[in-house]
């Protein structure tokens, strides 16, 4: 199932949750909608599911107008952020719900329903919880039951709203891997919403970065990490150093110092320079574009993080390999290995 | 794949233990001397005994003052039987109507966001803030011989006032808030996610209501119905205004108690009163049971 969204606009009062969104999702894709809260990602997901309606724009599934159908007819599996399991039903009945409410003409026999539910509970590895109630399950178990329930109707599309948002860090990591392999197994076109960049980059085939109701960038995890299209994406994904610079006379200036960086093709005026923390290489004074003094050094696993006061006045944090000897008070030179400059 | 998953059930029980600990610690730190505590508790208990338990005991004592046969004979009087029947009928009508209205109103308020929502909530509370006598008078103004619809009703030979419809209307008006009030906070807390889940799984509106919404609020519904019924059977003021006190026809149990008492038929008056008192006791017990169920429901949704 392919999904196509064209020029979607949705306003809540004067707040534009979606401000002209275009998106194409290919068959069998596992797509992440990534953005800070309030960026419109959940609204987009709910409109695709038919739980919300846009003010204008189009949504089509396989070329057919989806907005002509209600949520009930769209055949979309939706996994809610807080799972929304039916609290008065057992796990078994929760998963069976979608099969039991089908019109009599297409409804399966009781035995077939039981077999299908069993199969789904096996798929999410929770068959031993069939007789429990949702309140007796842990967060991770509820998450997987919610997924099994959504899969019961053999959805054409699977939508997950912050699927791991309410779980603790360890469970979240395990479920991520599990979701990836599950998607590989069932191969349903899937979209999940997350505000966690690590989650998006690790799980998805393609990432859509959103901010303020607009799409900032669409690309593979590598694309959005390695070549961010906008200042927002660079700042949001990966830990970046952001410095105010000026482009003038074909040079990049930081404060009153010209930097030894290429300024070809850059628009003159105030700009922002972005560098990943680990892309700032440390050398002896005078060896790079920046000069600085180390303020403080802390060790984090494979890297050491140093706070450096630059000659231009800003204080930045850089990540250097552990074998590089850095001590508070050292004067160092810094050269960005890779960087991007965005106007504005 | 095996997974180490945090068990939220055990987590909440350890939380409860911690809370109990804190309470015990507070007990130890309590500074009031024993004597003060005893005095306060004694005051509260004796006040309740004098003002609540004693009257209840007196009702039963008076009812049985001439022996059980006189008691039963008083209840078997045609007038008494007709009052009991009328009370049950009126309660059934008003509880039935208020169940439907209450569900609809609570649904609208809890699940939709619309203009005038807060106004509707205020309106629902109106019967609580108006004296029942005035509620009764409103119906006299509307349906009485000189009232707005009086002429039309007489022309079509429909008897509202001084008949069952009037009594049922007045009772329904007075008891309207109970079901809605019990359901609004419950439904607001539960939100709309389960309904959305049901619809996205292919359930129709009716299936969603009967399979998801109603089971989630059933204890709240019962609670509202119980309180609504207790008030409907016990209502005096509004009914007194619209009933007309036609003996054997439009007297409900509370009205009959007053009439009999005024005629010095104490045993008969208290015999009927004892039935109402029993209703109160049963309501109280059922209420306690339901409140426990409701609390459990809340706990379950906490996780």
From TrEMBL, chain A:
GO cellular component annotations of the record: ATP-binding cassette (ABC) transporter complex
Keyword ATP-binding: yes
Keywords associated with the record: ATP-binding, Cell membrane, Membrane, Nucleotide-binding, Sulfate transport, Translocase, Transport
Domain ABC transporter: from-to ranges: 3-237
Entry-linked Pfam families: ABC_tran, TOBE_3
Entry GO MF terms: ABC-type sulfate transporter activity; ATP binding; ATP hydrolysis activity
InterPro entries per the UniProt record, alphabetical: AAA+_ATPase (IPR003593), ABC_SmlMolc_Importer (IPR050093), ABC_transporter-like_ATP-bd (IPR003439), ABC_transporter-like_CS (IPR017871), Mo/tungstate-bd_C_term_dom (IPR008995), P-loop_NTPase (IPR027417), Sulph_transpt1 (IPR005666), TOBE-like (IPR024765)
Protein origin, superkingdom: Bacteria
Gene3D superfamilies the record matches: P-loop containing nucleotide triphosphate hydrolases
Family per record: Belongs to the ABC transporter superfamily.
PANTHER family the record matches: SPERMIDINE/PUTRESCINE IMPORT ATP-BINDING PROTEIN POTA, SPERMIDINE_PUTRESCINE IMPORT ATP-BINDING PROTEIN POTA
Function recorded in the entry: Involved in beta-(1-->2)glucan export. Transmembrane domains (TMD) form a pore in the inner membrane and the ATP-binding domain (NBD) is responsible for energy generation.
Protein's recorded name: Sulfate ABC transporter ATP-binding protein
UniProt organism field: Bradyrhizobium hipponense
UniProtKB/TrEMBL annotation, chain B:
Ranges that cross the membrane: 38-64, 84-107, 119-146, 158-180, 266-286
Annotated CDD domains: TM_PBP2 (cd06261)
Pfam assignment, any one: BPD_transp_1
GO MF annotation list: ABC-type sulfate transporter activity
Keyword Transport: yes
Cell compartment(s), UniProt: Cell inner membrane
The protein's name: Sulfate transport system permease protein CysW
The species this protein was found in: Bradyrhizobium hipponense
